[in-house]
Structures are given as structure tokens and as C-alpha cells.
Amino acid sequence: MTSVSVRNFSIIAHIDHGKSTLADRMLERTGSISERNMRAQVLDSMDLERERGITIKAQAVRLDYHASDGSAVVLNLIDTPGHVDFSYEVSRSLAACEGAVLLVDAAQGVEAQTLANAYLAIEAGLEIIPVINKIDLPAADPDKVAAEIALILGVEADGVIRVSAKTGDGIEELLDRIVRDIPPPTSEGDELRALVFDSYYDSYRGVVCYVRVVDGVLAAGDTVRFSATAERHTAAEVGVLTPLAVPVAQLGPGEVGYLITGVKEIDRIRVGDTITHPGQAAVRPLPGYAEPRPMVYSGLFPSDGDDLERLREALEKLRMNDASLVFEPETSRALGFGFRCGFLGLLHMEIVRERLEREYNLDLVATAPSVAYRVTATDGSSFEIRSPQDLPDRGKIELLEEPYVRAMIIAPSEYTGTIMELVQTRRGSMDHMQYLSPERVELTYNLPLAEVVFDFFDHLKSRTRGYASLDYEPGEYRISDLVKVDILLNGQPVDAFSTITHNEKAYLYGKKMVERLRQLIPRQLFDVPIQAAIGTRVIARETVKARRKDVIAKCYGGDVSRKRKLLERQKEGKKRMKMVGSVEVPQDAFISALRVDTET
Questions:
Q1: Burial class (CB in 10 A: 0-12, 13-18, 19+), 586
Q2: For site-directed labelling of 398, which of 76, 160, 322, 340 has its Cα 20 to 30 A away?
Q3: Is residue 287 in a domain?
């Protein structure tokens, strides 16, 4: 097969703009899937994706298409996620393509993630085909949306394709446009170079790599070399996804498929690596893509300490399928041994935790999420902390900096005032404002990451009746007035509830947590003080009252001194018990306190 007959492209869009439905229509039109096997969002294979109605993992599929001019073309399609937390999946997919279909909802118009994905494709040097979807909706206004797209991409509004992924209108025109406008892949030589752009772990077959062959031929039975690890293995099977895995004899230049080497050690194969033949040690590795930069950190601990090794194995296997996940061992006095994990956002964190519990049958406790702070100590050293318990004493800190992000908000112009008010309460500053049309405005702000990743998006949606969209990218570190708030039970700090927050919001966090814990912790045989403290200064307190046995119930009349003596003896006993007793915090109390904290 010659490279001229191949086209590699991704579908990129904001969440819920119809990417997976458009992929369904392409599968139907090219006859890649039978009517009997067809279902909605066929490429969303995970249960979580189908339950939530979102794409989490990028999926590759090969389509055999006969264009209107009679030519036979192989289309390699990669369907990508749309949520900002999974933008790393998009960047990896674009590295394997020459073109991108930029999909925009005809009713909702250009959204923040639409712009972000368009910029990713432009930076990757891809040919962009703008498409307006859902033209069959009653609220659709394709002419206005086409004008917005033309303004952003600098193209003619008449050249924007209009389709309905639901009814199939315009699919033929789009496929022909892909064949005509997206350039075929080029090859620089006959020596093998293939990019590993994704992978997953199969219990029976080991690591399965998704590869894009750039130069040369990858054939079954070849001995291949992975450049980053210098590992050598035999290509036990190569094949294509149609969307079912179909073995083939070889993959030529420009083709996308999978490679199975039988390797079961997860750390031997890395996403972004270059595959070559062993005799080609001097071959220049393919440019990979930017390493993922976690935005949110949280501790994951097994409810049963015996499951620690199972959790480690599950995280390693999941990282094969999700290269943006990072983790390292962590110890907590309250929760025992676990792992400090880095995520791209709260949705990413929630999805990873749910996949670990479902796919690997684990029961986990997650600590309150935090971001990475930069500390400059009094001795001049500078380092990054990812957990509140790693923060040194205040006397040893010269400077404490927090990460900022550059946030892009697109919303109807009538909500500009309420958005500005919300951002001001989150310590944000405006960078610039631009009108995409008389009805839609783009606002760019610099905001502390800690204020964005938790509940900012929920408040933004509620204040704009769901019409605003948000995207953000990492910015710089800035000096802030930050403090560490500790939660103490019976005078002992519980590291699982500690957090680093701005000084202005420390009291609110402390008051909220002590009130919540007072309701969750069962009564003991002695009074349990629950305190929120900054260093040695207590800023909030609640008390769980002791269970009290009625020691004078058996006294009927008689001298009052006898009753007083019994009460004094009980009082002394409770005092001794409080000194030596430990507060048992039920597991569900940890789960409830921490879970609610991420939702409020």
C-alpha cells in the first residue's frame, strides 16, 4: 500500500459537541461496522464513558473509503476527548496525524475548549477542516457560528462544512474534503521509525502498543528496538483496528495500527517512544510531545492495608492506558501506606479513582486534593511540595509561592458582569477581553490554580445558566499569603485533613471541617475536642461530648456527699482516659469528610 492512499486525522471539539456521534456516522458510511453490531458512540468502549456520556480515552479506527472520484483511500481516524482534563489525550493523538476535523455545535457556537484544541492543532502544524455539527437542531444558527469560526481561523465562512452527525447529512462532503485537503503522510527513508502514541495492558497478551509508522515497514516477526529503554523484542503480532483488532502481515509508511510483543513488564514500554530495528541505533528518534504536567495531587490509600501491593500494580497498569497519571509512595499517620497521585484535574482524579475501584476491585480513600507549591527556605534552597504534610515550619520558610493558570472563559456577553464578580472573589486578575461576536465574549484571566480546580467551574456554570465554557493552561508561580491549616483530634494532628490555603480563607475551611467532623465522629467515653489550627493558634473548635454513664442511678435518697463522691470518681476516670485514650475515626468518616470537601 502506498502512502498516497492514507489519510490520518483526529476529531477535536469541546465536550458534548458530537465527536463520537460523527465517528459513528463515518463508520456506517464506510461500512466498517455492520448494522447488527452498530450502537450509539461505538468507540466509547468503557462503561464509564457510556454512563457519563463523555469520551475519556482517545480511540483509533481504520476506515476503508471510496471517494466520489472513485479512488480508494484508507482513513485512520482518532476520536479524542473534549474535556479540559483530558487535553493531554488530544495532544498525543495529534502527534500521529496530518489533519484535524474541528467540530463546533451549531447551537452552542465556539467554546473555550474549541479554541484550545484549535491552537493545539495549529501548533502541531496540522491541516484543520472546520465543521459545524447539529444543523438539524431548532436552536441551530450555522451562519453565526460559521462567522465565529472564520474570525478565529482566518478562513472563509462559506468554506465551513455543515453536517448533522445524528441524521448523516453532509457526511459524504466531509469525507471527500478530508481526502482532498488533508495531506498524505510523507516518508523520509526505508529505515523503520514508528511512534508509540498510546498503549494499554491486556491480562493475557501483555502490553499492547498503538503505533503510527512514519518511515519503513513494521512486519510481524521482526525484531524491534524501543529507543528510550533500549529494549529488544519480537513483534509477535501487528494489526489494524477496524474497530475490531485485525492482524495483518505488516504496517507501511503512514499507517496506524497496534503492536504486541508479549512484554508483560509494564515499565519496559513508554508512550512517546520510537520503535526501530536493532541495526538502526543511529536513527534519529521521532519528536514526542510535551510531558504531562499534573495540576492536582491527592493521596490514594487502600481501606485494607493488605491491598497496598494490589493498588501499586493497578496504578502501573492504569498508567499504561493513561500516560498523564503520575504517582509516588506516601505514608499517612491516619491512613497508613498509599500513593500520592498527580492528576490533570478533578474530573481526571474522579475517573481514575472510579476505574481503580471498578476494574481492579479496590476500596480506596482519597485525601483532599491540593496543588503543588514552591517553597524557598531561609537557607536559600528552593523545592516543590505536593502534600500539606511536607510543608516546613513557618520559621524556616522565606517565600511560599502558588501556581497560577491562564484561564479562558467564553460566554454570552450579558454575563460579563457576573463572571467578573466571581473571578474577583477567587483572587483573579483580567488579562484581556475580546468580543467574538456582538453576543459572545472571550475573557482571559490569571487565576490561582487552587481556586480553579475545585469548584470554580460549578459556580461559573450556575452564574451563567450553563452557557459559559472554561479552559486553562499552566502559568507562572506567584508569591501568596498562604498558611497551613491543621485539624487536631484530642490535641493530635490528623494529616489527612490538613490543607494549604490562602490566609483569608483559612477560618472558613477550619470552621467547616470541625463542624463536619463533629457530626461524623462517634461519641467516645471522654470529651473529644476537634480543633483547626494555624501553627499553635487555634482558629475554630468543636467538641464531641462524652457518653455518660449515670453512676448515681442506684442512689435513692441518702447523703448528697455520696452522690458527689461517685461523680468526682467518674470525672477523674474520664480525665485519665482522655490522657491515655486514642480517638478512633471510622473509615466512613474519613470518606465522608474528604468527599464533601471536594464538592463544596
A1: exposed
A2: 340
A3: no
Calpha distance 469→564 (Å, rounded):
67
- pLDDT tens digits for range 286-325: 775 566 678 888 888 887 778 889 999 888 888 876 777 8
Residue 417 domain flag: yes
Cα(506)–Cα(394) distance, integer angstroms? 15
Q: Would residue 289 count as lying in a domain?
A: no
CATH number for the domain spanning 581: value is: 3.30.70.2570
Average pLDDT on 66-76 reads 81
Distance CA 55, CA 403 (A): 28
Does residue 270 contact residue 197 with C-beta atoms inside 8 Å? no
- DSSP state, residue 352: H
Residue type, 541: R
Q: How confident is the model over 144-162, as a mean pLDDT?
A: 84
Range 427-445 average pLDDT: 85
pLDDT of residue 596: 40
Residues in a beta bridge with 77: 9, 61
* Single residue among 330, 347, 368 that ends a domain in this structure: 368
C-alpha cell of residue 246? 485485525
Q: What are phi and psi of 511, to 5 degrees?
A: -65, -40
Confidence of residue 36 (pLDDT cuts 50, 70, 90): low
pLDDT tens profile 94-115: 878 888 888 888 888 887 777 7
Number of neighbouring beta carbons within 10 Å of residue 485? 24
Instruction: Give the pLDDT confidence score for residue 529 in this predicted structure.
Output: 86
Q: How many domains does the chain have?
A: 5
Q: Are residues 584 and 513 in the same domain?
A: yes
**DSSP states of 397-457:** EEEEEEEEEEEEEEEEGGGHHHHHHHHHHTT-EEEEEEEEETTEEEEEEEEEHHHHHTTHH
Q: For residues 89 and 49, is the Cβ–Cβ distance under 8 A? A: no
Does residue 303 contact residue 363 with C-beta atoms inside 8 Å? yes
Domain boundary among 245, 276, 307: 276
Neighbours of 469 (CB within 10 A): 25
In a shared domain, residues 70 and 154? yes
Non-local CB neighbours of 508 within 8 Å, separated by 6+ positions = none
Task: Say yes or no: 49 and 87 in one domain.
Answer: yes
Q: What does the pLDDT read at residue 23? A: 81
The answer as to whether 281 is a domain residue is: no
Say if residue 243's pLDDT is above 50: yes
Q: What SS3 class is residue 292?
A: coil
- pLDDT for the residue 28: 80
Instruction: Residue 3: count other Cβ atoms within 10 Å of its Cβ.
Output: 14
Exposed (0-12), middle (13-18) or buried (19+): which is 558, by Cβ within 10 Å? exposed
211 and 172 together in one domain: no
Same domain assignment for residues 145 and 21: yes
Instruction: Note whether 320 and 357 are same-domain residues.
Output: yes
Inter-residue contact 269 to 319 (CB < 8 Å): no
Find residue 341's DSSP bridge partners.
Answer: 298, 327
pTM of the full structure: 0.70
Q: Sign of torsion, CA 418 420 424 428?
A: positive
Which range marks the domain in which residue 488 is found?
Answer: 483-599
Residue 370, pLDDT score: 82
**What is the rounded average pLDDT for all residues in the chain?**
79
